[in-house]
Amino acid sequence: MIFAASWAISARLHNLFRRFAPSNILIRRVHTRTGIKWGPLVGLAAAALYGLLMLATATVVRKGGPGWVDLIVLLAFWNTVKFTCLIPVSLIRLVRVRHQERVPMTEHSRLPSNPRIAERAIVLQLLRDDHDERWSRTELEPELDNVEPLALSDAIADLERHGVAVVQGEHVVASRCARHLDELGLIAI
After folding, report:
1. What is the DSSP letter of 144?
2. pTM of the entire predicted model
3. Confidence bin at 7 (pLDDT 50/70/90)
């Protein structure tokens, strides 16, 4: 009975801290598709900030400050460790995502018989952070060199018909709906 109650309380506290603690909110934002490029910088800045806070509060405790300041030292230490671990993790994820954006199709998916693969590759290209929102068809072709030009045109037409992409003459843009789903983190790589 006591074990079950303590388990339930710890689970609720964990969810509470995960949802409302500023450091956890920041880490969750960094792990989204749009925030991943900021991961190493955010991790470095936050680790330095929390490290300085830890040193300052430890100095206050050492000079005879109140004992409750030890909790701040412990919290700052824990956040320093979290953000220090965020740096290599976000670098690895960033490299992986960039690689997947450059090579959106695997060896077994190079068959022209599956139009969904071409559509997925186009959507990933349209949602890239390191390019303007507008893509011309001539810009898309070299990025998707595994897709034949006819299959590329068919896939763009299907995406436009389903409201995922908007065709503006020779340019293709991700729809507002697709951008919003990407911001919500629902389009995952």
Report:
1. T
2. 0.53
3. confident
